[in-house]
Amino acid sequence: xxxxxTPALLRTVANALGALLLVPLLAACPKGDVGAPCNHxxxxxxxxxxxxxxxxxxxxxxxxxxxxxxxPTAPCTNNEMxxxxxxxxxxxxxxxxxxxxxxxxxxxxxxxxxxxCSSDTDCQDGGIGKQVLAQESNCxxxxxxVQIQKLGEFxxxxxxVCNDDLSQGTxxxxxxxxxxxxxxxxxxxxxxxxxxxxxxxxxxxxx
Length: 207
Known about the structure:
By secondary structure, the chain is of the alpha+beta class. It has helices at 2-28, 79-83, 104-110, 168-179, 192-195; strands at residues 50-52, 62-65, 93-96, 99-102, 111-114, 143-147, 158-162. The chain has a 3-stranded antiparallel β-sheet. Strands 3-4 form a two-stranded antiparallel ribbon.
């Protein structure tokens, strides 16, 4: 009787010790925050899609606002006029001095922490040790690895972006445009703002 009980007892103790050892390992795994809320540090909302770096509240210091809808150009007298054409019922715009502009509350709602990536897999959780996504997020449709800018520091850089804010047509068009850009010695696209010639130096000779 003792011979049969001892292995079972040892297995129980070993399993318990294994579970106890696993707990701190799980706690030590870095937790991702892609999709977590963030802000761009500006008082006024951006006029278009924007990538802010460094965003100190994000693990990878990247805060992305990727919604691409433009405000109506017609004069307004109230916020309802600015959002009348929104087919999803979202209050994206507000009326400021008879002009429709992005609402700061909407920008805050749709701004999320991001990270650079090379494929959609980089924007997804991959089990223990690869926790990419935040536990709570305003993103409902998951994340894709896409380019959202053709200007600025993150021109043609692939980032994890919420699918709620993307249209496939725009994503495909930007990918085609980025692929057509010349590249530097490291294969990085040379963007339009980098190709603009610098102004000539000011004449300091007094001539």
